[in-house]
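Supplementary notes (optional reading)

For those who missed the lab, this is the record we used. Protein: Transcriptional regulator. Length: 165 residues.
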Amino acid sequence: MEQRIDRIKNQLHSKSYKLTPQREATVRVLLENEEDHLSAEDVYLLVKEKAPEIGLATVYRTLELLNELEIVDKINFGDGVSRYDLRKEGAAHFHHHLVCIECGTVDEIQDDLLGEVEKVVEKDWNFKIKDHRLTFHGVCHRCQNAGEESEAEKKPKKRNQVKVR
Ligand SMILES: [Zn+2]
Ligand SMILES: [Zn+2]
Ligand SMILES: [Zn+2]
């Protein structure tokens, strides 16, 4: 965690930004909740626990800055809410998401898997791919097995859920 914060600090410094205590608190919340897909408001509520004086506008500006510096990615799962997702270090492209239409859980696929598709797009459309967003909608393995699991096990973590229409 401290090493990643150091690296993020260096990324900020290289663009002449400082890792102020408010920015650091925001980065820590993102690192601590790396599995989740938090909205600006979710991040704000968690940062407030560490830094009660912080305002939503400051958190929002920090998230936008981190997005600009490609430290976080912004994603929308179709519920109209922008969510902030830490970019995996060293990943050339954004990871993929599996959104369950029954329980709303979001799982991640870190492998790009799109090598062949990207080749076709680059060749046939003469398009230089920089990044992509890929969200699969379907029924997760937990919901498929819901009958065999106990109630407690099939309840996903609330914060990782999105409302899907
Ligand atoms: Zn993600
Ligand atoms: Zn890719
Ligand atoms: Zn599910």
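If you only remember one thing from this example: The mean pLDDT is 90.
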